[in-house]
């Protein structure tokens, strides 16, 4: 019996005899695909990260805090000082009728230039099981490169070839206006005008339709004017069963906002491009039931927004293992 047991044991172990000569597993050397899914009423939302940009921290990133104060908070959070990290998080809303992408990230050309740090939308969308050809509509919140450049692939063909492209009417008018362009300050604003003329031409213009605030952009998704971050920045509300999801970027944040009421003050006007603006429409902010999506926060890029003192703060929603 001993002999038999030994023979069986040796046979069972035989496949493992090769372990000592097995090659080491190669390092992945890149981040896992970033996306996160949840329901809002009957709609299914998929946040898909486009990656994150690292840039020198601007002195005036936070309107009512000094650069030293921002750096103090970065250090307290074990984050790099003097570095602004801006995550880009477009979202896909499946309304049951249409597959709608809100904002497009920095684009495939940026993916190549940044060696994959940004411009990840198409790759992560594929990883999430969503075919770019199946997108019925792309809604744009505002005309900054990290929201519109992804309309085009690196060869300037359409990234979402079957989609209607829906843009805020006032934002489109501003950036396409030759007079506004001629008055634009040199540098960033001048570059934005040039970039927007490049993106909004050719095939993009053939598919373009403008939308107005306080109206449905597609069935179930309503535009809300939130100007300030850009001339006519627009957010989008999906009201279902008393919940709301707001997509669209207000202001970049490099610092965790949980304990920093001054960070939420970025919602205030004062940094509008191209002139003075009425205050942003915050009628949807400050209600506990509201959730913000597509925020410049790490995935899942979802947070509650509530009043805090004279401003607002965000309470990030933690990852959930079920939808
Ligand atoms: Zn922007």
What does this protein structure show overall?
The protein is of the alpha+beta class and 323 residues long. The chain has one domain: Ribonuclease Z/Hydroxyacylglutathione hydrolase-like (Metallo-beta-lactamase, Chain A), CATH 3.60.15.10. It contains ten helices and 16 strands. It has helices at 2-13, 67-76, 108-113, 121-127, 145-148, 169-176, 178-183, 188-199, 202-206, 261-264; strands at residues 35-40, 43-48, 51-56, 83-88, 91-94, 99-102, 137-139, 164-168, 208-211, 216-218, 221-225, 234-237, 244-247, 290-293, 302-308, 311-316. Strand 5 (91-94) and strand 6 (99-102) form a beta hairpin. The N and C termini lie far apart (54 Å). The protein binds zinc ion. Zinc ion is lined by residues 142, 144, 229-230, 249. Residues 142, 144, 229-230, 249 line the site of zinc ion.
Summarize the structure.
The chain is α+β, with helices and mostly antiparallel strands and 323 residues long. 23% of the residues lie in helices and 24% in strands.
CATH architecture grouping = 4-Layer Sandwich
Number of helices: 10
**Ligand catalogue:** zinc ion
Total discrete domains: 1
Could you tell me the number of beta strands?
16
How does the helix and strand content classify structurally? alpha+beta
CATH class: Alpha Beta
Query: Looking at this structure, what is the CATH superfamily?
Result: Ribonuclease Z/Hydroxyacylglutathione hydrolase-like
User: What percentage of amino acids are in beta strands?
Assistant: 15-25%
Contiguous runs where pLDDT drops below 50 for at least 5 residues: 240-291
Biggest sheet character: 7 strands, mixed
Spatial extent as radius of gyration: 23 Å
- CATH fold call: Metallo-beta-lactamase, Chain A
Topology order in helix (H) and strand (E) letters? HEEEHEEEHHEHEHHHHEEEEEHEEE
Return the average pLDDT rounded to an integer. Answer: 79
Cα distance spanning the termini: 54 Å
Q: Order the strands across the largest sheet as they lie in space.
A: 1-2-5-6-7-8-9
Determine the fraction of residues in helical runs and give it as a percent range: 10-25%
Shape: globular
């Amino acid at each position: 019996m001993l002999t038999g047991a030994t023979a069986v044991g040796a046979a069972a172990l035989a496949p493992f005899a090769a372990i000592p000569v097995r090659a080491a597993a190669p390092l992945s050397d890149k981040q896992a695909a970033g996306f996160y899914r949840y329901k809002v009423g009957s709609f299914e939302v998929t946040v898909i990260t486009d990656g994150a940009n690292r840039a020198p921290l601007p002195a005036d990133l936070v309107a009512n805090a000094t650069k030293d104060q921002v750096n103090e908070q970065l250090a307290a959070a074990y984050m790099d000082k003097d570095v602004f990290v801006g995550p880009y998080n477009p979202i896909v809303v499946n309304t049951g009728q249409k597959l709608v992408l809100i904002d497009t990230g920095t684009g495939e050309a940026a993916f190549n230039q940044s060696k994959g740090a940004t411009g990840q939308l198409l790759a992560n969308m594929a990883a999430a099981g969503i075919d770019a050809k199946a997108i019925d509509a792309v809604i744009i919140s505002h005309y900054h490169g990290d929201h519109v450049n992804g309309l085009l692939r690196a060869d300037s063909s359409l990234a979402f070839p079957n989609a209607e492209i829906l843009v805020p009417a006032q934002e489109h008018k501003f950036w396409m206006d030759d007079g506004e362009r001629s008055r634009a300050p040199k540098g960033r604003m001048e570059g934005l005008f040039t970039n927007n003329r490049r993106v909004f031409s050719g095939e993009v213009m053939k598919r373009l339709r403008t939308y107005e605030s306080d109206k449905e952009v597609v069935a179930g998704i309503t535009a809300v004017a939130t100007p300030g971050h850009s001339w006519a920045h627009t957010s989008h509300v999906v009201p279902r069963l008393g919940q709301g999801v707001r997509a669209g970027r207000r202001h970049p944040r490099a610092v965790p906002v949980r304990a920093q009421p001054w960070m939420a003050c970025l919602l205030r006007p004062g940094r509008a491009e191209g002139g003075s603006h009425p205050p942003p429409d915050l009628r949807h902010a400050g209600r506990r039931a509201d959730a913000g999506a597509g925020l410049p926060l790490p995935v899942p890029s979802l947070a509650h927004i509530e009043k805090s003192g004279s401003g607002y703060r965000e309470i990030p929603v933690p990852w959930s293992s079920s939808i």
